[in-house]
Design brief:
The chain is mainly beta. Helix content is 11%, strand content 55%. The chain has a single domain, classed as Thrombin, subunit H (Beta Barrel). A hairpin with a 4-residue loop joins strand 7 and strand 8. The protein starts with a helix and ends in a 6-residue tail after the last strand.
Length: 141
């Protein structure tokens, strides 16, 4: 059974695997002089993160009704690709978009992590010279 799971994960990585950067939040603090939140992270580049396509999106059952949440995606990370535990609250940058990790589960016999991630549409994330820059606009009328 374990070999079957490994073969399945391998096939998914070949079909849907993409390069992504995992951001692990080390600490958060507030700079009292500027009022801005300071977040210290460590990054890990993962060569093959399985981002399942949107047509395999998660359908949620709520109060007897099915609904589709287009902002949530199912992601699978092979345990052999990371040497740490995946945590809720950390995030992944893929294709210049930020995905917050909202749920972490073990995938079949601890072969992988199964994640539910939610896209962060509040900001456009750009990668520029190894720095993460938040670009966005605010208007007041």
């Amino acid at each position: 059974m374990k070999q079957f799971n490994r073969n399945t994960i391998y096939a998914l990585k070949r079909a849907y695997g993409v390069k992504a950067v995992y951001y692990r939040i080390i600490s958060k603090s507030l700079d009292l002089t500027t009022g801005q939140q300071v977040i210290i992270t460590s990054t890990t580049t993962i060569r093959r993160v399985i981002f399942l396509p949107t047509n395999v999106e998660r359908i949620t059952l709520s109060k007897g009704n099915f609904y589709f949440d287009p902002n949530k995606r199912l992601v699978i990370i092979d345990r052999r690709d990371v040497d740490f535990e995946i945590r809720v609250g950390d995030y992944i940058i893929y294709d210049e978009s930020k995905y917050n990790i909202v749920e972490v589960n073990n995938y079949e016999l601890d072969a992988a992590f199964s994640l539910i991630v939610q896209s962060d549409d509040r900001a456009k994330w750009l990668l520029a010279s190894n720095n993460l820059v938040i670009a966005g606009e605010a208007s007041h009328e």
